[in-house]
Design brief:
The protein is an all-alpha fold and 328 residues long. It has one domain (4-299). Helices cover 66% and strands 2% of the residues. It has eleven helices and two strands, in the order ββααααααααααα. The chain is globular, with a radius of gyration of 22 Å.
């Protein structure tokens, strides 16, 4: 049986001749993750800058400035570019770092199977009942005058969104749903909840600071100025879902429903008039339903293990596990 050299020793195990990132100090791990994000995001942008003119005859700068009146072909290219940039910024760095950092990357990212079927139902119900409240908050923010600069930037962001939501055919709907719902749900949950919340928890005394910190970064990563407080609260809610259920898959599903509902309703031409906000009765009723759903999820919680953020101890839950083991 052939032998391999591992760290200067002869062994019969086919282990890689490298140290996992988890053996490095916290600051060095974070630096490596940031460098990986910058490198991969820059690589994705560079590839688009080189390939788009050759393949489609358009520049990346013009693609990212589409609006609902742009040619369908230009919108399709813009969606493709948006999807690639999102994958290279959020999804690939998270998956790649987890594989370099830990021998069990799925557990490292929280990609454990949902422990209870009810968790998936309650996670979706929680985000759906939160949506009217978040929409009302965004409407309230839009009534405040933040100055001409914010107004111009908000209009530019909304123009791109309207372009992406121009879906005359079912193929357009599928394309938009993948780029605006599926890709962000997977990539952003792995990035913000799977990676950043783990890093933050390693330096925090409890879960409050990691949830708030990742929610703030999550909000600032979106170019929606009026919707920033709503996005912040949605990010905190997704973090709570991950914490209470112990599986990031529930957050991914809730995130996909949150983003995908707008795509689906727009495609079905179900558009509500929110120019005057929601009726007080609707807000109160929805708030009660949201509170009830949160209570149901709390009562059925299977939270993240007490030491889920540690790099060497096998995740342990004091309610079910007596002893903790060491990762291989």
């Amino acid at each position: 049986m052939p032998a391999l050299c591992v760290c200067g020793e002869i062994t019969l195990n086919f282990a890689p001749c490298m140290r996992y990132f988890r053996t490095y100090p916290w600051a060095l791990q974070l630096l490596l993750f940031v460098l990986m994000i910058f490198t991969l995001a820059s690589l994705g942008q560079l590839c688009l800058q080189v390939l788009l003119p050759k393949v489609y005859g358009v520049q990346l700068s013009s693609v990212l400035q589409v609006n609902e009146h742009s040619a369908p072909e230009m919108i399709h290219v813009a969606l493709l570019a948006q999807g690639i940039l999102s994958v290279m910024l959020f999804m690939v760095p998270s998956l790649l770092f987890a594989n370099f950092a830990h021998p069990k990357p799925k557990q490292y990212l929280g990609l454990n199977a949902p422990k209870r079927p009810a968790h998936m139902v309650l996670s979706v119900m929680l985000i759906v009942t939160a949506m009217p409240l978040l929409m009302q908050l965004e409407w309230g923010m839009s009534q405040i005058n933040f100055g001409p600069d914010v107004k111009v930037k908000q209009a530019a962001a909304e123009a791109v969104q309207k372009a992406f939501l121009t879906m005359p055919t079912f193929a357009d709907f599928l394309r938009t749903f993948i780029v605006m719902a599926i890709i962000p749900a997977i990539g952003e949950e792995l990035f913000f909840r799977g990676m950043l919340m783990r890093f933050a928890r390693q330096k925090a005394r409890n879960m409050v600071m990691p949830i708030v910190f990742t929610a703030v970064i999550f909000a600032f990563s979106h170019s929606n100025y009026y919707g920033m407080p709503s996005i912040l609260l949605a990010g905190a809610l997704l973090a709570v879902i991950y914490y209470l259920t112990g599986s990031i898959w529930n957050g991914i599903l809730a995130h996909m429903v949150f983003n995908g509902s707008q795509v689906l309703l727009t495609y079905l031409h179900v558009v509500s008039d929110s120019s005057n906000g929601l009726h007080v009765g609707v807000i109160l009723g929805d708030g009660l339903l949201f509170g009830w759903t949160l209570q149901m999820l709390w009562q059925r919680r299977t939270p993240l293990a007490d030491n889920w953020y540690q790099d060497f101890d096998q995740p342990k839950n004091t309610e079910t596990d007596k002893e903790s083991a060491i990762f291989n």
